[in-house]
């Protein structure tokens, strides 16, 4: 969502809410053939009642936004960002309130996604494919592709031309060379932006760091890749009155197969034995769909090509341009929200804006 003062815009990601309500049950951008059908008794399904709240603190001296709530009359229209995700745009002139709160509730049902990836069906990219997916082969601001990345990608992939097999080599390399920060929170941290360079340098990070590194390597190897931002409804946070944050994963394109999802970050929670401590146990439990972690090769295989039913999509891509175009630089990612006031980026935090996403899972009928 974006909303505007009489000088420029205040923008926030409530467009993602519309995205959820309009794209059916398939992960946005993925082939419909990857969706598990409701009649498949082996495929899992989950339904959640969700409350999405964005609170914006308007600084002194700025144009203030007032009376902005999705369930009340207010000028708005649906736009699309540069990746095609739907955004709800709202305008406010001469607002007077010091604080603006936006709330939307909805019900989302998700099916487990299974691709049953068959490398034998995949084909090398053609020149036409490269032209069509050029933007998914290029670098982003924090998804860098430099000589070091190209050299490393070649060392990992070698002469493999099958995109599925090459992607799996990159997936396995990241799993065995990078550790999720939650395993050792006293000594490992995540970058604030989702950075390839950070992840490669420090060999740690959060989901965005993992996917940034994997995406850089994949694109350098000629595999079209995009990063998907969404939410991951974990059992521990069901009904909790606190923001459940966000999660991201990647999809890559293989001719003959289509778009294939993977989650190398969550898969890392199943590589090698992990010692639970008072510092890391809660964090590790809240990183996975079922609260389990520790060596599990089957789970590692599962997250290459499959997605559990406990996630939903907000937006796709990096370096986004909104419509109307924001005054600031391209938006790094729409993981939570983006806000501008009087043409200046309004920061996340107690004096800027805060998002709270809560949910309650419905019991299967």
Task: Map the helices and strands.
Layout: E1 2-4, E2 9-11, H1 15-22, E3 45-57, E4 76-80, E5 86-91, E6 99-111, E7 113-114, H2 127-132, H3 147-157, H4 163-177, E8 179-180, H5 196-202, E9 204-205, H6 207-220, E10 225-232, E11 247-254, E12 258-262, H7 264-267, H8 281-285, H9 297-302, E13 306-307, E14 311-316, E15 339-341, E16 344-346, E17 353-362
Parallel strand pairs: 1-5, 8-9
Antiparallel strand pairs: 1-2, 3-6, 3-17, 4-5, 7-13, 10-11, 10-14, 11-12, 15-16
Helix pairs in contact: 3-6, 4-6, 5-6
SS class: alpha+beta
Can you tell me the CATH topology of the largest domain? C8orf32 fold
Instruction: Tell the overall outline.
Output: globular
The neighbouring-strand order within the major sheet is 2-1-5-4
The largest β sheet comes out as: 4 strands, mixed
Overall strand count: 17
**Total of domains:** 2
Q: Estimate the mean pLDDT confidence.
A: 82
CATH architecture classification of the largest domain: Roll
Instruction: List the helices and strands in order.
Output: EEHEEEEEHHHEHEHEEEHHHEEEEE
Give the end-to-end Cα distance, rounded to a whole number of Å.
34 Å
**What fraction, in percent, of the residue positions are helical?**
10-25%
Gyration radius from CA atoms, angstroms = 20 Å
Model regions low in confidence, pLDDT < 50 over at least 5 residues: 1-41, 58-69
- Per DSSP, the total helix count is 9
The level-1 CATH class of the largest domain: Alpha Beta
Beta-strand content bin? 25-35%
